[in-house]
């Protein structure tokens, strides 16, 4: 391959500091690029530096980064790496070229790009890693369409490819969810024409990732897996049209119709389905039994419930962590609604998002009703359920790593 | 490529010069893209054209000079450079053939209505798609069903169903459409619709098929997500065929669609590359879906590689012809008939075949193509120049050549109503007004 061409692309990308977002964006686009099983791929030269960056970030709990790095070692190498072929593709250079225009606007595409590589919180690209660990924990199988020699660090090539596909799909969904409605644009976002352009880029790059994911899936040669993953994509999209989403788009915290069942459904659709179906698919690819498929599915689903509960509790109790998410949709508040008396509900109804005072009052009342505590209990329950579904696997390093990771991502600070 | 080689032959007499000009036009006409192959038409030796790679010889065979027939490019005839393929001097290795337009085969099947043959299958199509898209979420249901109202042309499923029948009769497995082939037809329409939804956001178009577009009604964000949803349900349907080869073939269409969209973002600096860029884009954005659908149903109909390739070629040529007609209608049709504003492509900055042809006659179009008709008055000027030029006729001519090629690829199929319908379809395609 023409190495000078590659070098020039790199130097072009890294020399311009204003293009730092773009570079990161490219990492996102490129790193999880699906490659065929035989294709040789290079490690991204800056990858190590970036990994260290994740690890030393102030918000990342120590135990979590250790769990991740231990786990990454177990499966041989991280899910993410760069394919030469992809870097030189027309599509990517096209995106790179056009992304310059976006720097300086508030298009969510930039935020998504930044967040994917450098989220700062406990939301790294762990899906692929979990899929590979589950694959490894399940071990080799005589029914698999491969021999044991095909395994690299205990993972079949198809399972490894699947892990990457999952990351690509997740990235694509984030990019597409970051598309803005042009009629809702406010002047601070930047010029409408730039925002429209950002949308264009978001549509195209998301489509590009999705189409590579689809061909990657097709290459796995297993229609059942295509079906499972397609269902997960369908669920992720469905999540954007539920009553739950609808309610909180209007950021009206006094809405009282939302129950914890709705919260569970929303979490399953938007996040759980992908991991659960991927874990299932990883078993299918190795020809494992129906029972193992079910257990892997249940593991994926429960991990997400535990992780999401933990995230939302943290988000609710630490005011600095305030996300764009409406507090009314956070699990503790959803539970609070079910437990609160009419009197206590008034704190929620009168809640004003801009006032610290009002926020503290709400926090206190949520604590008082026991909703927060119940949320923490639930988090532990789902974590235990996840760990219990691993009982079907023999004791191994991979299983231990899974337990460590699950514990880490569901530990409330 | 051959154009450049031929330029060096300028020292020849005026007559040769003339031939070169014609050749250049031909080259332009067929494009020089690698994947743009023409099958050798054995029957018509009088319509042989040199391929780009075969024009190494700087001299034209003197003995055959007189037998070199060429006609002018205007009117309804192809520019034809005829050399007996036995001529050693011409050094023709890869001969690309052209047939004259619709002259060799009389159009005797006028009475066949392609829709008739698969009417029952077509009638329940929209409902089956809606079933596939069913969901509890009301808004998602409304939005994803929006374009499957039965008002669309459903051209892709029609081709898929007819091709299924033609294949099944040829391989003697059935005289009907198999349920898996029907699934492929459904998937094709779903992929097509999903791509329309995304295209409308990218092109910021407010109308589609004469009605309000999804993005206009529900905003850009949800429209894109609905497109993804339709695609995911199409994948589920596709997976139900249980055939990994078919899944791979149709997944490759998605990659083509995206890469076609990317190609549309940029225009080529080089005037000669521009046409092949355009044709390649046309293949990726339109023909790939039709071609690969045909191939997929052929495989499901137990066709061998040779026949599947023929099915693919039919779809590919049909698809390109379809798009060429679409592109020329953009210039000749009125807003009312098309269901979308005319000269829409120009307004989007896209130079399609009529403009590219017109630019040969009116070089002042080139700078406008390069700046994507962004300067005030560009669109009007370009429209005017296209109307004055032979661009529309030449586009039609090119479309009819592809239509002929499509019909030729069907020769190996056993004669049947389905095959006749496919042939008929390739012909009426050229006459469509909307």
From TrEMBL, chain A:
Annotated Gene3D superfamilies: Farnesyl Diphosphate Synthase
InterPro entries registered for this protein in UniProt: Isoprenoid_synthase_dom_sf, Polyprenyl_synt
Transmembrane residue ranges: none
Entry-linked SUPFAM superfamilies: Terpenoid synthases
GO biological process terms held by the UniProt record: isoprenoid biosynthetic process; ubiquinone biosynthetic process
GO molecular function: prenyltransferase activity
Record-level GO cellular component terms: mitochondrion; transferase complex
Keywords, ordered alphabetically: Transferase
Keyword Oxidoreductase carried by entry: no
Superkingdom of origin organism: Eukaryota
Family membership noted in the UniProt record: Belongs to the FPP/GGPP synthase family.
Protein name (record): Decaprenyl-diphosphate synthase subunit 2
Source organism of the structure: Biomphalaria pfeifferi
From TrEMBL, chain B:
EC numbers on record: 2.5.1.91
Any single biological process term in GO: ubiquinone biosynthetic process
Protein name listed in UniProt: All trans-polyprenyl-diphosphate synthase PDSS1
Quaternary assembly: Heterotetramer composed of 2 PDSS1/DPS1 and 2 PDSS2/DLP1 subunits.
Family membership: Belongs to the FPP/GGPP synthase family.
Catalytic activity: 7 isopentenyl diphosphate + (2E,6E)-farnesyl diphosphate = all-trans-decaprenyl diphosphate + 7 diphosphate; 6 isopentenyl diphosphate + (2E,6E)-farnesyl diphosphate = all-trans-nonaprenyl diphosphate + 6 diphosphate
Keyword entries, A-Z: Isoprene biosynthesis, Lipid metabolism, Magnesium, Metal-binding, Mitochondrion, Transferase
Recorded GO MF terms: all-trans-decaprenyl-diphosphate synthase activity; metal ion binding
PANTHER family in the record: ALL TRANS-POLYPRENYL-DIPHOSPHATE SYNTHASE PDSS1, GERANYLGERANYL PYROPHOSPHATE SYNTHASE
